[in-house]
Design brief:
mainly beta; 48% strand; 16-stranded mixed beta sheet
């Protein structure tokens, strides 16, 4: 793998990890059970309008340990029944010489159960670009329009399920799971749509932990793993792992995954307007 190709693989991997915390394990199989999609009172949601979170992406290989970009997530009130969330992924200025990324995501979703109604993404990664526009139907199918760099347009109907999300809504949905009902070792499937496909994810709860985050301190947290795929990026031998705060906010604290050369991590960089006190912070 060339240096440029390695950097590209590293960053594209992080893009997937940052917004969904997970990576597709295999194509969707409708007979599999879903993670429960439940109604959550607005007063109990782990987030609220005005919340802003920034995640810092880093790459480690031997003695090399460098920040390569940021992921910014923000949620606003769209209406009395819906939130509008946006995500922005950008490479650091120095990294643009290797591979420049400037991606924008937007999702509209129901306040009570996080089910999406609209999603779009506008991707610019090196010489690659693509746009997705999704409209979610009441039967959970998705009217998808895919626009590629060459101007070609593909309209398709995707066979979603009640637990099929997009990158953005998946991020907020996972923060509002019924964590009290989970036991270490529990594995649950969930799915998300990207481009013209729907993928299955396998989420495993690994129990409680403590973790120190550079520049933020030490936190009590909940640890999870996700099944990953073998190939040019992952070696298929290790799970993607992530940690979220063990308090009412369920803030993403740290993400880590091995790649063929080195590892990719994401750490909490900054936050604003959290809904609840960050009581998981120990010091």
């Amino acid at each position: 793998m060339t240096t440029t190709a390695a950097y590209k693989s590293i960053l594209l991997t992080f893009i997937l990890l940052s917004l969904s915390w997970l990576l597709p394990a295999q194509e969707q199989e409708p007979e599999k059970p879903c993670l429960p999609v439940r109604e959550v009172p607005v007063s109990q949601l782990a987030f609220g309008a005005g919340e802003k979170i920034t995640i810092i992406a880093s790459y480690t290989w031997g003695v090399v340990n460098t920040d390569v970009g940021t992921v910014s997530l923000e949620v606003a009130e769209k209406s009395t029944t819906q939130f509008q969330a946006t995500g922005r992924i950008q490479t650091a200025r120095f990294f643009n010489a290797f591979f420049r990324v400037d991606d924008y995501y937007e999702s509209h979703f129901d306040k009570s159960n996080m089910r999406p109604t609209y999603f779009m993404r506008d991707i610019h990664e090196g010489k690659y670009s693509i746009q997705n526009y999704y409209r979610y139907n009441t039967d959970h199918s998705i009217n998808a329009r895919i626009i590629r760099k060459d101007g070609s347009v593909q309209d398709t109907l995707l066979p979603g399920r009640v637990c099929t999300f997009d990158f953005i809504t998946l991020f907020y949905f996972l923060r509002n799971l019924d964590f009290g009902a989970m036991k270490p070792g529990d594995v649950s499937p969930i799915s998300f749509a990207i481009d013209e496909e729907v993928f299955e994810l396998y989420l495993r709860y690994d129990g409680k932990d403590e973790i120190r985050i550079q520049g933020q301190g030490t936190f009590r947290c909940l640890k999870f793993s996700a099944q990953t795929v073998a190939g040019i990026v992952f070696d298929g031998k290790e799970d993607l792992r992530f940690w979220i705060s063990d308090d009412k906010n369920r803030v993403p604290l740290f993400i880590e995954s091995p790649v063929v050369v080195g590892r990719v991590t994401g750490r909490l960089g900054s936050y604003e307007n959290l809904r609840f006190p960050l009581t998981s912070k120990i010091k």
